[in-house]
Here is the input.
Amino acid sequence: MTRRIAWTLVVLTSVLLVLAVVPLAVSLTARERVAHRDSQRAATRVIAAAAEEHLSDGRPATSMRKELDAAARRGDCAAVYDSSRLVASTPCKAAQGEESEELVADVLRGREPEPPESEGRLLAAEPAGDVREPAGAVVLARSSAPLDARIAAIWGWSAVIGAAALAASVLLSVRLARWVSRPLSTLDASARRLGEGVLDERADVGAGPPEVRRLAATFNTMAARTEALVHGHRAVIADVSHQLRTPLAALRLRLDVLAAGADTATAVDLAAAQEEISRLSRLVEGLLAVARAEQATPRPAAVRIDAVVAERVTAWAPVAEERGIRLVADSGGASPTVAMGAGHLEQILDNLIANAVDAVPSGGSITIDRRAAEATARVRVRDDGPGMPGRAKTVAFRRFGNPEAGGTGLGLAIVHRLVTVNGGTARLEDTAGGGLTVVLELPLWPERGPERADGPRSLPDPKKR
Here is the structure.
């Protein structure tokens, strides 16, 4: 952004300088040329007036020679012609020749000639006497070097002024661009850190234009409310978790004590009550897991998919073997690294494998494969179980979305929340030949940032699920 603002201002200033300096320099150059020509013509008329006294009135040529000598001292070359020949001239012969004779002929005919520029000199011709019937003509040749020097000075100073103005514009543009963009860059970095889970992140409200300061203040207000909301929800989850688990555990213990001394009929009823309490406990755990997933604000870390998949397949292999299910990880293809919160990929795979193990009959298989796409990594968990109806797939990621689910109906909801909070997507597809495939699109790690999180951290034992 700094470069764009600076370049825009520099280009705009350059255009304005060109539109202002160049026409001014052209105008000054034209004025210098006119002044030089007028001065030359005035000097020629002075000599022509003195020559008229000699050519028309027959007076001595003293005055004419005096003016010719003065012109020679100034560095000019002059020549006086009558109607047929050269009468007098300065020692310099630049005012003589074919071009001078053509000018004299035009003057003697009563026409105003177009003085040419010859070999760095400017020629001027004036009649001596009446313009319509002149007694002669005077030609004066003056060097154009002083004029060229003044014109070069005009353009040189114009270039210096333009360059100085452009340099000042560059400095001011860079400072202005930084003044505007630096607070925005800081605000962008603060927003990114807040999105990565640094809830106490705040933006600087003391720099930049007033609009940016108000934006930073608004961001800080939003960040403070978000922090308070997340901390409040976390506190509620912790309180609910404690308040629900404790009475359920106490109730289960009482039923165990009652079942120990009960008769057969009562023991059966107590066993059914214990099963319902266990189901209620699993439901509470699932709801708390969904709530934690919804309130998660992960800090992305580099997670190697192949390491996590291999570890989870090893952990779930005994459960799958016990039920006669083949659980494998496809080792082909690339091994991408994704950006996810620590432990999230493990929790996602645990829920997907648990659902697949419950759904696939004995003799079936579950396959986990992965591959890298353009900006994402694709992970697929395929099974050859009974699959899921189309209508059920549309609501499967909601809480209790599938009324036919064998478990709590919260596993896919947890998966969806964890995937989306990490910037990915999840969808359900039919497996070729029958079954269900869960497709996860996860963001790739940009090879920068915090330390890697290649493996699981304090994961639950799948046998206890």
